[in-house]
Design a protein that fits this description.
Distance between the termini: 38 Å
Structural class: alpha+beta
Strand content: 5-15%
Radius of gyration: 31 Å
Number of strands: 9
Shape: elongated
Largest sheet: 7 strands, antiparallel
Number of helices: 17
């Protein structure tokens, strides 16, 4: 009969060398995947148009994470910011990918070595010669190393002392670039959209980790605490480690979905809430009104709007579009944007300005409804033409486009106006090329949505894993079916007759040395 799936861990749970080997192999697989996926993404990535065809539209997943840490150039001479002829040195996209693959290979060899030569003296208690792990000290060593890495990342990499800094942009994701960042130690550092908070928190957390690591290396835990928390059980380590992982997974899922300085929209695409709240629409209107107040015409005001800002205000770029399981890059859905057509405005025959009610996030289609400034429906495209009361033909709706490729043009033909109304329902209007990527016309989820969904699922899985393994180690005697009050009565060979204390073979309180036989 085969063992249950979770019993495979018994091979390594009491074998420190091979336990280390499987962890090395796991890290090798992760590093190898990261390097290989980076090379694959580079092979299919088109860097020619960073505005209308950015990496997140092309389904890139690891490249945005490389870019936010300072890797923006390629040995091919291009940069994700649109520059050409750049020389990034070794730490290019290709260089980082190669480093991960080489590192993966070294870890692979180390895993094989530790699996083969598992019986090392380091895994023995020098007092008894028996296999033993000093888990509190091992925890301290790991904490010290993690603290040093955390502090070094914040104090040197992000500040630009020995690194490139990090990706910094404005609130509307237009001016993104690499920049050394100084720590923000005041209350402003707790703003999730303040890059200085990231630097300060890494430095602070690193210092705390270093101090705590030294403490746990040099200090022995009290006996009661050692026994209460089962510090001698390797499954306690597993449960504690899973707790750290699920906590981090929940945090990154939240900061990715809601947005943060660590997840800039230029690298991962807009958040869902920016579409729901009309974030970019409000900024476009503000810029236009400012230009009009300064004497510009409507054509000039909308022509000054950056194409990148207009592109963010398009529902197809929301991570909530496409559902959770419609796979593939976003360009495989609505297509490759080729140009901004402009901002479309509507008016009826009575001269009222009309606006199209925008498509809600979780809808694939929606009736086209035009409202006036008071929210009263003045025109629509009815599902049943025979029941039309507010048809474009009856209400005399016309469309005028400002900015973009159609700047200054007015359309009166109902067929053209309806076509523009359907585009306006999705936000700012763009022309798409569906041939280049063989696009099928259905929305896809952005990498921001996939990352959030994946990490939320992993966080829940690891949360339940933490509860499971924590319960197993804290209540191991209960799971084993042994009443903790039985105590010595069930120890093999201690009594001539089980349960009869008068037949005890050895004096009360005597504990025979390990490995000896009872007589």
């Amino acid at each position: 009969m085969g063992l249950p799936w979770y019993r495979v861990h018994t091979v390594v749970i009491n074998d420190p060398g091979r336990l280390l080997a499987v962890h090395l192999m796991h890290t090798a697989l992760v590093a190898g995947w990261a390097g290989s996926m980076a090379l694959y993404e580079l092979a299919i990535f088109d860097p020619s148009d960073p505005v209308l065809n950015p990496m997140w539209r092309q389904g890139m997943f690891v490249m945005p994470f490389m870019a936010r840490l300072g890797v923006t150039g390629s040995w091919g001479g291009w940069s994700i910011t649109g520059e050409t002829g750049v020389d990034p040195g070794f730490w290019s996209f290709e260089g980082v990918a190669a480093a991960h693959i080489i590192f993966s290979g070294l870890l692979f060899l180390a895993a094989i070595w530790h699996w083969t030569y598992w019986d090392l003296e380091i895994w023995q208690d020098p007092r008894t010669g028996e296999p033993a792990l000093d888990l509190p000290k091992i925890f301290g060593i790991h904490l010290l190393l993690a603290g040093l890495g955390c502090f070094g990342f914040g104090a040197f990499h992000l500040t630009g002392v020995f690194g490139p800094g990090m990706w910094v942009s404005d609130p509307y994701g237009i001016t993104g670039h690499l920049e050394p960042v100084q720590p923000a130690w005041g209350p402003e550092g707790f703003n999730p959209f303040n890059p200085g908070g990231i630097v300060a928190h890494h430095i602070a957390a690193g210092i705390v980790g270093i101090i705590a690591g030294i403490f746990h290396i040099t200090t022995r835990p009290p006996e009661r605490l050692y026994k209460a928390l089962r510090m001698g059980n390797i499954e306690t380590v597993l449960s504690s480690a899973i707790a750290a992982v699920f906590f981090a997974a929940f945090i990154v899922a939240g900061t990715m979905w809601y947005g943060a300085a660590a997840t800039p929209i230029e690298l991962f695409g807009p958040t869902r809430y920016q579409w729901d709240q009309g974030y970019f629409k409000t900024e476009i209107n503000r810029r236009v009104q400012t230009a009009l107040d300064n004497g510009a015409t409507k054509e000039q005001a909308y022509a000054s709007i950056p194409e990148k800002l207009a592109f963010y205000d398009y529902v197809g770029n929301s991570p909530a579009k496409g559902g959770l399981f419609r796979v593939g890059p976003m360009v495989n859905g609505d297509g490759l944007p080729t140009s901004w057509l402009g901002h479309i405005t509507f008016a009826d025959k009575d001269g009222r300005d009309l606006q199209v009610r925008r498509l809600p996030n979780f809808f694939e289609n929606f009736p086209v409804v035009l409202e006036d400034s008071q929210g009263i429906v003045r025109a629509d495209i009815p599902f049943r033409r025979a029941e039309a009361k507010y048809s474009f033909e009856q209400t005399g709706v016309t469309a005028t486009v400002y900015g973009g490729a159609l700047n200054g043009q007015t359309f009166t033909d109902p067929a053209d106006v309806k076509r523009l109304a359907r585009k306006a329902q999705l936000g700012e209007a763009f022309e798409f090329d569906r041939d280049t990527y063989h696009s099928d016309g259905t929305f896809r989820s952005s990498p921001r949505g996939w990352f959030t969904f994946g990490h939320a699922c992993f966080a829940l899985l690891f949360f339940f894993g933490h509860i499971w393994h924590g319960a197993r180690t804290l209540y191991r005697d209960v799971f084993a079916g042994i009443d903790p009050d039985l105590g010595e009565q069930v120890e093999f060979g201690l009594f001539q007759k089980l349960g009869d204390r008068s037949t005890r073979r050895l004096p009360e309180g005597y504990v025979p040395p390990a490995g000896t036989t009872l007589s």
